[in-house]
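Batch queue: ligand-bound targets. Current item pairs a single chain with zinc ion. No template structures supplied; prediction is de novo from sequence plus SMILES. Inputs echoed for audit trail.
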Amino acid sequence: MTQTTYFNAQLFDGLHDGFTANSWFTVDDESGKLTATGTGDAPASDQQVDLHDQYVTPGFMNCHVHLGSNAHQLAAGKRSETEVTLLGLQNLQDLLKSGVTYVRNLSSHYDVDIKLRDAQPVYGFKAPHVVASGRAMSATGGHGDSPDHTEDESYVVDSPDEMRHAVRLGFKHGADVIKLMATGGVMSVADSPLDAEFTLEEMAVATREAHARRGKVAAHAQGTEGIGLALKAGVDSIEHGIFLDEAEAEYMKEHKVYLVPTLNAVQGIVDYGQGQIPDYMVKKASDFAQAFFKNMKMAVKAGVPFATGTDAGTPFNDFETGYFDELNLLVNKVGMPVQQVLYAATKNAADLLGVADEYGSLQTGKYADFLVLKGNLLEDVNNFRQADKQVYLHGQRMF
Ligand SMILES: [Zn+2]
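Prediction returned. Tokens below.
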């Protein structure tokens, strides 16, 4: 059993505010777990690594992506499973390089996220750890059920009984988490983000079935009514939450339901969409952007627990820089203090993903997934954009 001690670091451990100077931590090379941490003189070890007073954080987590999508090539028609898989492999590598060491995929065609999660330990390609939903649950004609829909794309569900069956199938096929399309969305032709698509009864069956299997439920929910129904049904996170109201924010704080706003999904379309993607998408995104940022400010003030996610794969919201943009928007558009953003990216995200026992903070007994950065994030969250940051998974340097 050999050990490596990293010393002379400015350490944010994921649990305590700020960076602690002159920190060290020891990693067991075989298990990839931390065996000791401290400050001051580092203990003797098989290997010593001087981090030269650089900034160390736990690996960051992106709680909402679409691995099988390409943010810069949207009008490609229906992709084969091979194409979706190739995109997924590239996207995973880009995520890891950007500093994301754990990712939650919320809907992929052909269940490619589940298959890549299971293939990684066998084939050893570079990837963050993956929490996978497989195909999402959609209502007929709703978000995720396009006119040329095929069953490879999502489960189409129209009653509590159908939901029970589909959720059980989802778990049978390897899902860790169930994704519900509770409302319409910006990117679907026929519906509006304001439409509440699933009934309370349908969603309540989904949460019952998921929770009975130690799984979680993430609800794509944008309009006020649909958000309210999803909360009542007992979902574990609200994704997007564009028209979240104060009563719902209060409920989320009280019941510790996470909000994953994915600001960059909307901002990407507003900034770059004109003339590049269908007009209805640009119009929907622009119409809703202002209300979105206003309501997210309200949610921060109300003390709603946040976890970071980008919706990567939506137009102009990619796997390389989209996460940097999301952190920037949280701080500079929504007014979340950087310290809170750091928790949303680590401790909170690990809790939402159900992996907080082993990930999300740098403590003895947890995995050594960490990043080494030149700049202090508390001074400028955009220091996270550093292209050559060091990325470690289980104590092994990946980039
Ligand atoms: Zn999404």
